[in-house]
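hey team, just a heads up i'm posting the complex here instead of the shared drive bc the drive is being weird again. everything in one block, sequence lines first with there labels, then the predicted structure for the whole assembly after. its two chains so it's a bit long, scroll down
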Amino acid sequence: AQSVTQLDSQVPVFEEAPVELRCNYSSSVSVYLFWYVQYPNQGLQLLLKYLSGSTLVKGINGFEAEFNKSQTSFHLRKPSVHISDTAEYFCAVIGMNYGGSQGNLIFGKGTKLSVKP
Amino acid sequence: GAVVSQHPSWVICKSGTSVKIECRSLDFQATTMFWYRQFPKQSLMLMATSNEGSKATYEQGVEKDKFLINHASLTLSTLTVTSAHPEDSSFYICSAGMTGSSYNEQFFGPGTRLTVL
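-- predicted structure starts here --
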């Protein structure tokens, strides 16, 4: 089974400052990793994903994340945030089971990013 | 592309009544649809997975007789909350799965806020 830990429930930051949202996972099998953003009263929008290849992945809205297998982490970063980035961010994993079947999408508890002017 | 809609976006009902929520993939055929429940300030919890033309697979702890799921076509799945009670009040989000080259990507609907009085 897989699990996802988002270490910070809330991250306040000033506009134009850099931000890092932390995500660690545990799994006994290979995983695919995702970051989603949720604006108030809306569904989830995919920011970026890691499936294979380069460990640094770039997503929409200037976000990027780095997969670190040894530390089982997939932290999300943005060098300069905007007010419009205020939202809830969810890290998620899918476990790739032996035999090639795909597990369910497992979410972390989310990190609320608040960008202040 | 890959747009998923939900209807209604919000609903208020009296205790004891049943509520139906629709999830549609607008521009693709989804062989698998997922239903999630999200409590305030918490993560998404998978309730069930449904494949077109077959019975839904419910996660442990989810009452299948209370949360009826129908996936009658490749573009429509419905969740019916039967005999709703205040504790069923929540944000319900569906997603539709699209088979890709490497994994089955999920596209999320905008969610339905259910309030049971």
